[in-house]
Amino acid sequence: MDFIRQFVLELTTFLLTIRSEDDFKVALTRLMEHWDWTITAYRSYLGLPAGNDYAIICTLVSLTITQGMRFLCSQLTAEQLQALVDMVGPRAFTVVVVVPSLGVIVIPIMQILWIARSPITAFSLMLLIAVPLVILPLVISCCVRVRARQSDDSQA
After folding, report:
1. What are the residues whose beta carbons fall under 8 Å from the beta carbon of 106, sequence distance 6 or more?
2. Which of 24, 69, 76, 114 is in Cβ range 3.0-4.6 Å of 52 for a Cys bridge?
3. How far is CA 121 from CA 5, 110, 131, 152, in A?
4. What percent of the chain has pLDDT over 70?
5. Could you tell me which residues come within 8 angstroms of residue 1 by beta carbon, excluding any fewer than 6 positions away?
6. What's the DSSP call for residue 101?
7. Is the pTM of the predicted complex or chain greater than 0.70?
8. DSSP class of residue 55?
9. What is the three-class DSSP state of 105?
10. What is the dihedral of CA 56, 62, 66, 68, to 10 degrees?
């Protein structure tokens, strides 16, 4: 999940600031790396225990979409990518690029729900998984705000 979040932030910022053809070559390379990573993740999900037909169907659909997008973008040159980004806008392009990657997060959650057989157990497992991803940054953010207020109070 962190990989996807980092990719989205980098790509959005990158697409807003680039204009030269060399930069679009770098962006195209990053897109190919991202889609290769996503395709590898989906292929690994196909090796999970069978029985959850919905997860398998979601995996196959997401894999097909991702491979199709990778194939289409691998045919683009840097100039064509630049024209495409300029036509749809950098933020819209980023959303379209990242949507197939959301399955990398959704499919394991579907598997947890399937294996747990109990919504309470599944929710507890997902909460346990989310603790380092959600709560730790939240605690750090609160601590930074408290320190900023303390420094503002001490200066006043």
Report:
1. 58
2. 114
3. 27, 13, 15, 44
4. 78
5. 104, 105, 133
6. G
7. no
8. H
9. helix
10. 90
